Amino acid sequence: MAGLTSSTIGRKYAMALSAIFLLIFLVMHLSVNLLSVFGEDAYNNASQFMGYNPLIQFVMQPILMFAVVFHFVMGFVLEIKNQKARPIKYESNNPSNNSTWMSRNMIISGAVILAFIFLHLYDFWLHEMNYKYVDGLPIEETRFWGDLHAKFADIWRVVLYVISFVLLGLHLGHGFQSSFQSIGARHPKYTPVIMAFGKWYSILIPVGFIFIAIFHFVTQS
User: Fold this and answer.
1) Any keyword Transmembrane helix (predicted)?
2) How many DSSP H helices and E strands does the chain contain?
3) Which residue has the higher pLDDT, 216 or 109?
4) How far is 179 from 29, CA to CA, in rounded Å?
């Protein structure tokens, strides 16, 4: 790992691999959460399996945590090194003509998304850790849907989630194709397909999460 992150190219490659892993995770996470829209039992069953399966809890979850931290740390490191490599901005430079606003400000959207992740962990992961390992409460198969539903009773939380997922969509819009480009997946035949798929991915994933938050808000009894 040290050799992979010792050069700028290596860091970009490692960051791209962590990004692809997180892209896959987002699909899985959305798939499970969408079950809460279609029925309490389906979501409760899936959540119980995810929450008490040893392989997921003690192998996959630490890997996910590492991937999140690694991705953001690499992002900040690359941004700092890019800034140091270009200490002087030429007056003639007009970046808006050569790149999108998001591609120039991935660090900003990334920082906001990181703050949202902390909120999300506080809302759900920390609650689970307290329930299972601090309070030591017994397995209650029907609690998961109710916990999720209750979190979206407050409009301010829904608004924060919506804003965060909009920024996530913008972040994904550039990050998806950039990740594949960084690992060398560039070809006249396949690159347009990757770009098109990335565009739809960056729209559908955030829209799916936003739909879930709004659904649980408007269906509060």
Assistant:
1) yes
2) 10, 0
3) 216
4) 20
- Tell me how far apart the alpha carbons of residues 201 and 5 are, in angstroms, rounded to a whole number: 28
Could you give the domains of the chain?
8-84+102-219 (1.20.1300.10)
**Dihedral of alpha carbons 48, 113, 180, 65, sign:** negative
pTM of the model: 0.86
Instruction: Give the end-to-end CA distance of the chain in Å, rounded to a whole number.
Output: 51
Beta carbons within 10 angstroms of residue 206's beta carbon: 23
Surface-to-core class of residue 175, CB atoms within 10 Å of its CB (0-12 exposed, 13-18 middle, 19+ buried): buried
Q: What is the mean pLDDT of the chain?
A: 86
Indicate if the pLDDT at residue 117 is higher than 70. yes
Interval 11-58: pLDDT, tens: 888 889 999 999 999 999 999 999 999 999 999 999 999 999 999 999
Listed in sequence order, the residues at least 6 apart from 150 whose beta carbon sits closer than 8 Å to its beta carbon are none
